[in-house]
Amino acid sequence: MEISERAKNISPSLTLAITAKAKAMKAQGLDIVSFGAGEPDFNTPDYIIEAAKYALDKGMTKYTPVPGTLELRRAIADKLTRDTGVEYAPEQIVVSTGGKQTLRNACEALINPGDEVILPAPYWLTYPELIKMSGGKVVVLETTGASGFKMTAEQLEKAITP
């Protein structure tokens, strides 16, 4: 089986390479703080383990609805409303397995082959590859500490091509 041209055009995971390098350096006895894979440095809290056991004991062993269970989406909407003052409905909430997968889904839904996608730097190493996998062309927009590493309206305007 041959992989697609799209897949051939993406780079190997730099996140995994950085993580492997950090582990190797730590194994050599070096004092390392890894900024690689987003693996927590603590075990799953007991209350989460207990909730998972409870759910399994109650027969919750099937797939959940694609956007997440209604109860969870309600709880998230309520928390967002409390925290931000902006009213959210559960129908506006989609629960995912993580940010990277959600961004991948968004790229597939929004990027057409050849579309330019403006990416403010600094960025997470995966972002250009997500854009390329969806057929987009990455346009890096450099930011600085002076702007809080946020792009300005002027920068965005200049980065947009006709």
UniProtKB/TrEMBL annotation:
UniProtKB keywords: Aminotransferase, Pyridoxal phosphate, Transferase
Annotated protein name in UniProt: Aminotransferase class I/II-fold pyridoxal phosphate-dependent enzyme
Record-annotated Aminotransferase class I/classII large domain positions: 31-161
Keyword tRNA-binding in annotation: no
InterPro entries: Aminotransferase_I/II_large, AspAT/PAT-like, PyrdxlP-dep_Trfase, PyrdxlP-dep_Trfase_major, PyrdxlP-dep_Trfase_small
PANTHER family: ASPARTATE AMINOTRANSFERASE
Required cofactor names: pyridoxal 5'-phosphate
Keyword Ubl conjugation in record: no
Signal peptide: none
Family of the protein in this entry: Belongs to the class-I pyridoxal-phosphate-dependent aminotransferase family.
Gene Ontology MF annotations: pyridoxal phosphate binding; transaminase activity
SUPFAM superfamilies, per database record: PLP-dependent transferases
One GO process term, biological-process aspect: amino acid metabolic process
